[in-house]
């Protein structure tokens, strides 16, 4: 199990505290009508910031999903962050998914770039290039070769905060918690062109537990 943190993400503690206080005040001042309304808001916030432990697949060649959600795109594309042709897999997170982001492969962080931008619906194709985003380029060693995997956190229509906790040059491990996107968005995964894809558009995936592709 990869579980170095509480089951409720630390990013959510202030929001959870605020909604609990609001619910208490609503019950006290407004009775059960207003109280129930704020209870529902509190329940929603708590479920949004859940961050459960995950089993990490042991296959050396596996590229793990960095996010919970639904695959909305699998296609050849140009990776502008590593300047190469690649396979792009996009995972869309709705407000009911876990939003803790996890590392897909063992490796070294070569580069991290943050880009301010718009807050379009993350389900749209142009969100990858126009929305606020944070890109992390990873160099991973496999079968005597260096493989490059790029993970891009993309803000969405509701998301207003991308958090990334790792730094350039850092050694990272599969399943490691590296960031968080508050209130819905997506993660784009750029893979080597010879990677063997294991998912299709429409598939539901889980961070760490789902294998998106295998290196070759």
Fraction in beta strands: 35-45%
Largest sheet: 8 strands, antiparallel
Indicate the radius of gyration in whole angstroms: 18 Å
- Our count of domains comes out at 2
Number of strands: 14
Helix content class: 10-25%
Q: Helix and strand succession?
A: HEEEEEHEEEEEEEEE
List unreliable stretches of 5+ residues. none
Give a written overview of the molecule:
The protein is α+β, with helices and mostly antiparallel strands and 216 residues long. The protein folds into two domains: 10-48; 62-214, Glucose Permease (Domain IIA). It is 19% helix and 39% strand. The protein is built from two helices and 14 strands, in the order αβββββαβββββββββ. It has helices at residues 13-48, 127-130; strands at 62-64, 69-79, 84-93, 100-102, 107-115, 133-142, 145-155, 161-164, 171-172, 177-182, 185-191, 196-197, 204-205, 211-214. The strands form three sheets. An eight-stranded antiparallel beta sheet has the order 9-5-6-7-11-3-2-13. It has a three-stranded antiparallel beta sheet with strand order 1-14-12, with no helix packed on it. Strand 2 and strand 3 (84-93) form a beta hairpin. It is elongated, with a radius of gyration of 18 Å. The chain starts with 12 loop residues before the first helix and ends with a strand. The mean pLDDT is 88.
